[in-house]
Amino acid sequence: MDKLFARFATATARITGSPVAFLLCVASVLIWAATGPLFKFSETWQLVINTGTTIVTFLMVFLIQNTQNRDGAAIQTKLDELIRASDAEDEFMGIEKLTDRELDRLHDKCQRMSRATQRLLDRAASEREARALKSKPLSTPGRRARS
To answer: What is the pLDDT along the chain (147 residues), one digit of tens a residue?
Structure first.
């Protein structure tokens, strides 16, 4: 049942997200609007579009949520595998299950580490620049480089 629904949700999301589906919806609204004078802009005429859009919206919410849940789980699994296979800290695996407060603390820790790393990189760049200036040979006046 799960696989069948997953395939159905994926196919429906792909179809409904296509330019053709969008154009069909626009055409439906234009046809509905054009029939307004024919039905004298009655309450029934308005009810048709309201009911149709409500039903479609209601069903699409569940399909979109299912697709996003599966995509999110797949991305998290891929990220966890990259973390596991690399030298990254394992504490980042599964962080999508943390509370907002725990995520904020981890984010703050990453920002502190990033600032510390940037300071080290800046210091190293300054030292390289200072060494390059010291080791640069002095040019002698009156001497031209050959082309």
So the answer is: 888 988 888 898 889 989 999 999 999 999 999 999 999 999 999 999 999 999 999 999 998 898 899 999 899 889 888 888 888 778 888 888 889 999 999 899 989 999 999 999 999 999 999 998 888 766 656 555 555
Nearest Cα neighbor of 67 from 1, 22, 5 is: 5
Distance, in Å, from the CA atom of 17 to the CA atom of 30, rounded to the nearest integer, reads: 19
Judged by DSSP in three states, 34 sits in helix
- Is-above-0.70 flag for pTM? no
Task: Please tell me the distance from the alpha carbon of residue 22 to that of residue 33, in angstroms, as a whole number.
Answer: 17
Helix (H, G, I), strand (E, B) or coil at 38: coil
Instruction: Count other C-beta atoms under 10 Å from residue 80's C-beta.
Output: 16
20's tokens:
């053709």
